[in-house]
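Predict the 3D structure for this chain.
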Amino acid sequence: MPFPLLILAQAAVAPAEAATGITKITQDFGISVPFILAQAANFLVVAFVLWRFAFKPVLATLDERQKKIAAGLQYTEDMKAKLEAIQQESVASAKKAQVEATRIIDEARKQAKEFLEKQTQESAAKANDILVRAQQVIELEKKKMLAEARTEIARLVVETTQRVLSKELSDADRNRYSESAASELNSV
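Done. Predicted structure below.
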């Protein structure tokens, strides 16, 4: 069934045809001007409908997809940059932790060395104190033994003197002889 515009075009052009050169060519090739005009009008209507209802939504969808792809690529680039920044931060953090660990280890070694030196000094001081005390105790024991020996020697001298002299000495004489014997022993 032909389009209504095509029928109208044929009716309007049919009486106006004359035997001119253009009409002869159109007749020889079977070209009908009303059909061409009708087909051009139909083409324009179909092109408009396609543009309005098909191409525009498709182009809008393509533009939207293109924007989403661009946004996705931008997001990917941003994530790559963030990942690189995080990796650099991680490396820096690891280096910082390593430096901190080295510092702590060095500090612990230093403290251990200081503690060892302090303990060594304290031990040496205690050993010196023990030696000094031992020498003092030995000196006191020596003095005590000498005092006891002097007393005993003085007693023996008095006793021997009594026996030699065969006489009984009074307490005052005994003390005098003991003191003189002790003084002689002290001078020796």
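Residues 154 and 181 are 6 Å apart (CA to CA).
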